[in-house]
Amino acid sequence: MSVQTADPEGAAEAAPSHPTVHDVHLVDRRAIGGQRALEIILGAQVDRVPPGVLRILVDHDCGVGTVQSQGLFLVLEVR
What we know:
- Residues 1-21 are annotated as: Disordered.
- By secondary structure, the chain is α+β, with helices and mostly antiparallel strands.
- The chain has one domain (8-78).
- It is 20% helix and 35% strand.
- The chain is built from two helices and four strands.
- A four-stranded antiparallel beta sheet has the order 1-2-4-3, with helices on one face.
- A hairpin with a 2-residue loop joins strand 3 and strand 4.
């Protein structure tokens, strides 16, 4: 599947508007053979990715690569 139409910058701008989003980071891994990725950190004690956050990702043609807990926070790697 091609991710060339994904708009991580647009998703990074839109995601903070959701009340469960704690922080957003664009990570550039192209220098080490990877891709650009968006990390979305959901607020403390959020135990799943809310539909509103998924909607934001869909609107920017992005998908979820991984989801992991880090302490009280849930971290999404978006591609």
